[in-house]
């Protein structure tokens, strides 16, 4: 078991307006999860909890059996989880490859030649060396999202969480991104959790969870 | 060291921001450097002033006590108490040479001048006289009719009408220590001056106008006669010729001896010989120049410990010229210090505000880095490294231009300060630092002098000269840029960068990645 969510409750201002009630979920490695939900249902907040960007009001989240509090949120984000955002969140003043190398350095990636590794990974997602040397802002939205995913791949974290990763992309690019996530889960053995509101995208995942009325319901299990 | 790399990329990519920071930082550092260089130059000038000017302490007869004694003895002698004291009973003792030498051995004495003056008549040559022949003649006539007392001091004798010749003998231990020579009023143009070795010799140094008027050159022998006894003549061997920048004043028109051209420098032993046997091993006064003006009080204490008879002798300290001279420098230094502090504080605030604004713009970047698990300290380190890169460029710019700004600001400050100092009523003229010889020359032949008029008394020939002299010293304020100032500037730059980043980072420490990236 990679990640375990135990009796988690979360609310913003009022306990009566809690987003979840005693959520209990487990996430396995080598699987691609999607969490479906309508806007405002609290799925992004849930991502922030499992990504170590926030802490639950009650309950706890365990990573490989250890509480995130014990691991420390910064350490957890640094060593255990990679986050892919809808808006890519790349550093605008760097080249594509430097964005990845920089993230690898921050997360203390074990690769001996980080730049070569990053370039080879970028080539796998269709970003040539020439493109990789250019400032990341010169890339299209789809390309930037692929860079963000490559960054997650290179950082060697076992858990990848993505918040609406295809939200800004067309269908073709969206399917390409999902293919990459599948590769991450099935070939690299990572646990990938994708937050989305698109059922078409969700269907591509191994396990689909829907957040509705403060509860997570499993809709699909391949 | 990933954060340094990021700092490099960020600095390189955000050229506008980097330029703005460089411009602001350079401006701050230029003003700090200007302040530092002015401060340093003022300190150096003050140090130089200490070295060059020193402080003088004049040993002379305690005139106050002498007057009191004279007054009380007259009162005692007089049966009628209301009768005024007899001026003839006023007596003063010349300064004993042993006392002079004892004090000369005290620490912190850089040099000392023994002064013994008298007047004689020119015998084998003509003194430079005033244009008014009648006045001069009458003056000379009255001189010839002078009474029994000779010399400036009349020390040990009763003060009576004094005789005055047309030549002033300025007895000294060394012309190098005479204030007129040390302050540049007079300089040896030919031959040599009087030295310690010339004691008990008849060597003389005469003024160039006197030499030219009488066709006297170095190596010649001249004759002077006792002002009271024309038959008593003395031979003087001219070993040097000096030129004075002093000019004759109204008094010297009436009395040739007061004409600066008629001053002949000899050994003090010769002056004593002319004055008479009572003056053997004595001096009118001794002026001690101290190497450190701040140890003036210590010198006075040490002198008293060494057994100085303060009833007979007095020590007059004179650091007024030094104080007067350094006052503008101190003002400039203090102002420069304020510039440094003010600009540093303002610079820190300005830079902190700019960094805060840039951090607000970079919230998203901070969020990304935090989501990657980057430590906040390293993010702050990145901002600090960026500012350091700007600091290096700003240091170069300020290093190049700071000296010029320092010169301009320094000159203006100095001009303002010297103008203020010169216009201050306290600084008009001031007491003559030169005390001894020139004071004596002004006083001695008219018979009012004596040893007591040496040191601290106002020197008429130098009246009003102090300010001008000070201005000359202060104009020499040399603003230079040395490694020390650059290192200090670097230190200030580092401190400002550090403080600015720390202030700006308070916001970073409170930032939550979720709020930045998800909301």
Summarize the structure.
Chain A has 222 residues and is an alpha/beta fold.
Notes on the protein architecture:
- The complex is a heterodimer of chains A (about 220) and B (about 525).
- Chain A contains nine helices and ten strands.
- By secondary structure, chain A is an alpha/beta fold.
- Chain A has a domain at about 5-80 and about 155-220: Rossmann fold, CATH 3.40.50.
- In chain A, helix 8 (about 170-185) links the parallel strand 7 (about 160-165) and strand 8.
- The two termini of chain A are about 15 Å apart.
- The longest helix of chain B is centred in the last third of the chain and has 48 residues, at about 375-425.
- With about 525 residues, chain B is α+β, with helices and mostly antiparallel strands.
- Chain B has helices spanning about 1-15, 15-55, 65-75, 95-105, 135-145, 180, 210-215, 250-255, 270-275, 295-305, 320-360, 365-370, 375-425, 435-445, 465-475, 485-510, 515; strands at about 55-60, 95, 110-120, 165-170, 185-190, 205, 220-225, 235-245, 265, 280-285, 285-290, 315-320.
- The model of chain B is unreliable at about 130-160 and about 425-475 (pLDDT under 50).
- Chain B folds into two domains: about 1-50 and about 325-430 and about 475-515, no CATH class; about 55-320, no CATH class.
- In chain B, about 50% of the residues are buried.
- The interface of A and B includes residues 90 and 102 of A.
């Amino acid at each position: 078991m990679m990640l375990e969510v135990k009796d988690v409750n979360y609310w913003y201002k009022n306990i009566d307006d809690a987003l979840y009630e005693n959520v209990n979920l487990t996430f396995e490695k080598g699987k691609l999860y999607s969490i479906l939900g309508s806007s405002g249902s609290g799925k992004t907040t849930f991502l922030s909890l499992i990504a170590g960007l926030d802490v639950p009001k009650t309950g706890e989240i365990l990573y490989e059996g250890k509480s995130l509090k014990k691991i420390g949120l910064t350490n957890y984000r640094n060593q255990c989880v990679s986050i892919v955002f809808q808006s890519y969140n790349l550093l605008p003043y760097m080249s594509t490859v430097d964005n990845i190398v920089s993230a690898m350095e921050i997360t203390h990636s074990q690769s001996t030649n980080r730049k070569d590794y990053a370039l080879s990974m970028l080539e796998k997602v269709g970003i040539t060396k020439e493109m990789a040397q250019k400032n990341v802002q010169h890339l299209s939205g789809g390309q930037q999202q692929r860079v963000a995913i490559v960054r997650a791949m290179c950082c060697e974290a076992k858990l990848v969480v993505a918040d609406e990763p295809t939200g800004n992309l067309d269908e073709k690019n969206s399917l390409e991104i999902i293919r990459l996530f599948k590769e991450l889960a099935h070939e690299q053995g990572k646990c990938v959790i994708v937050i989305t509101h698109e059922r078409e995208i969700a269907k591509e995942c191994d396990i689909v969870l829907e957040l509705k009325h403060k509860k997570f319901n499993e809709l699909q299990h391949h | 060291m990933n954060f340094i790399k990021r700092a490099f990329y960020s600095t390189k990519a955000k050229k506008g921001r980097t330029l703005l920071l460089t411009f602001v930082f350079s401006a701050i550092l230029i003003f700090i450097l200007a302040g530092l260089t002015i401060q340093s130059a003022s300190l150096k000038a003050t140090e130089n002033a200490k070295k060059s000017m020193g402080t003088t302490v004049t040993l002379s007869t305690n005139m106050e006590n002498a007057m009191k004694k004279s007054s009380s003895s007259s009162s005692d002698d007089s049966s009628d108490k209301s009768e005024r004291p007899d001026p003839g009973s006023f007596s003063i003792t010349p300064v004993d040479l042993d006392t002079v030498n004892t004090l000369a051995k005290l620490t912190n004495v850089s040099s000392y001048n023994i002064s013994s003056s008298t007047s004689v008549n020119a015998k084998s040559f003509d003194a430079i006289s005033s244009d008014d022949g009648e006045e001069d003649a009458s003056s000379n006539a009255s001189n010839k009719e002078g009474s029994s007392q000779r010399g400036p001091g009349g020390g040990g004798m009763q003060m009576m009408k004094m005789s005055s010749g047309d030549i002033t003998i300025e007895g000294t231990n060394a012309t190098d220590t005479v204030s007129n020579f040390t302050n540049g009023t007079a300089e040896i143009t030919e031959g040599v001056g009087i030295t310690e070795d010339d004691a008990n010799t008849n060597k003389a140094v005469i003024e160039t106008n006197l030499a030219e008027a009488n066709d006297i050159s170095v190596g010649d022998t001249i004759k002077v006669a006792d002002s009271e006894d024309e038959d008593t003549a003395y031979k003087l061997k001219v070993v040097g010729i000096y030129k004075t920048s002093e000019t004759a004043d109204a008094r010297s028109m009436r009395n040739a001896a007061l004409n600066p051209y008629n001053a002949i420098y000899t050994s003090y032993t010769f002056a004593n010989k002319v004055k008479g046997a009572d003056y053997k091993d004595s001096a009118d006064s001794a002026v001690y120049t101290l190497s450190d003006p701040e140890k003036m009080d210590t010198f006075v204490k040490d002198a008293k410990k060494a057994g100085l008879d303060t009833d007979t002798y007095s020590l007059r300290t004179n650091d007024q010229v030094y104080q007067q001279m350094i006052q503008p420098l101190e003002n400039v230094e203090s102002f420069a210090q304020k510039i440094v502090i003010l600009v540093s504080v303002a610079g820190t605030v300005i830079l902190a505000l700019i960094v805060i604004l840039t951090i607000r713009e970079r919230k998203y970047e901070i969020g990304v880095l935090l989501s990657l698990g980057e430590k906040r300290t390293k993010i702050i380190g990145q901002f600090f490294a960026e500012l350091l890169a700007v600091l290096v460029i700003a240091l170069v710019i300020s290093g190049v231009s700071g000296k010029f700004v320092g010169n301009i600001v320094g000159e203006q400050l100095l001009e303002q300060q010297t103008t203020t100092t010169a216009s201050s009523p306290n600084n008009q003229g001031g007491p003559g630092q030169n005390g001894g010889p020139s004071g004596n020359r002004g006083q001695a032949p008219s018979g009012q002098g004596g040893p007591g008029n040496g040191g601290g008394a106002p020197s008429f020939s130098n009246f009003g000269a102090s300010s001008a002299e000070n201005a000359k010293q202060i104009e020499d304020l040399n603003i230079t840029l040395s490694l020390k100032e650059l290192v200090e500037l670097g230190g200030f730059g580092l401190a400002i960068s550090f403080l600015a980043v720390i202030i700006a980072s308070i916001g970073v420490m409170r930032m939550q990645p979720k709020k930045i990236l998800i909301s």
